[in-house]
Amino acid sequence: MLTCREVSRLLTLEPEQAIGRFRRIAVTFHLAICHNCRRNRRQLKQIRHYLAQTHVAELSQVDYPLDTATRERIAEQLRVHHSTPSEDV
To answer: How is the chain split into domains, by residue range?
Structure first.
């Protein structure tokens, strides 16, 4: 049985990375019983839809420079977030 965290990661990676048949079955089963993960999937689909409609090329050309301290703070938060286990949603 997959955890909510695993399902969330797989749903996020799905457009860029193929999910194997058995893993897809496990995700489908989990989605059948987990309201929070179904909501997460709907939200991801909405985000992808809105991004597809925006002018992503124009947005990617805008430069938002960050100072070194801000970059380091963001990098540290990402390291902390990805290294500590969190509760399933």
So the answer is: 4-83
Q: Could you tell me if residue 55 is left (phi over 0), alpha (psi between -120 and 50 degrees) or otherwise beta?
A: beta
Angle between helices 21-33 and 4-13 (to 10 degrees): 120
Instruction: Report pLDDT digits (tens) over 31-62.
Output: 999 999 999 999 999 988 887 777 655 655 66
Q: Is 63 helix (H, G, I), strand (E, B) or coil?
A: coil
Query: If you average pLDDT over residues 16-43, what whole number do you get?
Result: 93
Amino acid identity of residue 24, one-letter, is R
CA 29, 31, 37: angle at the middle one, nearest 5?
Answer: 150
Burial tier of 76 (Cβ tally within 10 Å: 0-12, 13-18, 19+): exposed
pTM to 2 decimal places: 0.58
Q: Which of helix, strand or coil describes residue 11?
A: helix
- How far is the C-alpha of 54 from the C-alpha of 47, rounded, in Å? 11
